[in-house]
Predict the structure of Nitrate reductase.
Amino acid sequence: MTPSSPAPLAADPGLSSEDLAPIAPAARSWGTGNYAALWISMSLCIPTYMLASSLIEGGMNWWQALLTIFLGNTIVLVPMLLNGRAGARYGIPFPVLARASFGVRGANIPALLRALIACGWFGIQTWIGGYALYQMAVLWLPSLATLPAVFPASWALATGPAITFVLFWLLNMYVVHLGVESIRKLLVFKAFFLPVAALALLWWAISAGNGLGPILAQPAKFTSSAAFWAFFFPSLTGMVGFWATLSLNIPDFTRYATSQRAQLVGQALGLPTSMTVFSFVGVVVTSATFVIYGKTIWDPVVLAGKFDSKLLVSVAMLAVALSTLATNIAANIVSPANDFANVAPERISFKTGGYITGVLGLLIFPWKLIADPSGYIFTWLVGYSGLLGPIGGIMLADYYLLRKEQLSVPELYQYQGQYAYRNGYNLRAVAALIIGILPNVPGFLAAIGVLDKQAIWPGLAALYDYAWFVGFFVSGGIYLLLMAQEQRTPAPAGLEVG
């Protein structure tokens, strides 16, 4: 078989589609620059800014916040690169790679968990874009701010922002209907606009804040070392959790790599640096708001609404909405659409998966997730990292320690192959996943107010601060123990690149 021709796949119905089939080496065109650009594009988004500003609002000074972000992104880069190797070698997406450890049917479990979290991110980005439109519209139509409430008080959703949120959501769904290709021009716009806007915001902060000196001189707000560490460790976990979703489904992108070096170098150059540099803008601007306004404003959309010029605010908010639209489609539609398609490839297309993502993104009440920094970090980022860490631990233990990077690609698409396990489910992987999640459940319930933290054993509650790490190592270790007696006869297939 020539390197440019795909291995013949005797795929069973229900396990393959055009979106899930392996990419032949000849069709792989992404080089180092593409992966660096991918991470620069995805890092330059409002949630990244809010990630940094939430640490400042939480009490860190500028260098503590930047160091936390750099460390978190350097840590998550490791599973990112390790999972990416499988995609680059075999040309398969994340849901198919998950079949090796969870089974050809059981792979739907990690795929759907990851997809549901992507739905949450889709909702968050859509809320940010919709609220930006509201900030613009209310300048010209002040009555939007005084519309009577139509939603229950428990929803904490004002009518004016709800209207622009729904309109922006409809725009996202229209782009899904047109197809991902329609977003290319917006991605180009974003690549030029956001760096310029970030520099302009940085210039404003430095000018209005009387230079960098007073801004960077802002001290940490912690009264003791113990208070700092109590905030640092869950924050670090949250930074890891920020890209924990992509650390799982990165094969969706690395399957297009021309070589292993392309994805390894491109991601290593693009992820930690772009996240840290753009976060610096968030750190400086948020610190400047305290100097200028006497209080920290961590949401850049709220901050922009304080500017005097109607035209300036309108242009800025419209640009934020457009760049958010581009980010949303690229980062939060492509992967969950593949994950939902994996459940029933013959019935769920990419567009249908995109529509499912959109509806669930509404139902997750995204405005509540980012209502305050503590909810953003401790409830959302740390919370879902406790689900994704165990999946990552199982997949990496399976691929590297058990299979030694050897997969039979045809059997990943067959109900009767070595990845069939028991009726398509590897119950050992499912058990390891559950065991890895359980230690973090009490802390999560305390974080969302369901349980009183005082009613939980302190040691168990403390585990939640390290949710991703606990889940990763517990599930990975349990999986290895449970699979120790499993006989394997791996048969490497074609479709590999070096």
Q: What stands out?
A: Confidence is low (pLDDT under 50) at residues 1-8, 489-494. Residues 114 and 245 are 6 Å apart (CA to CA).
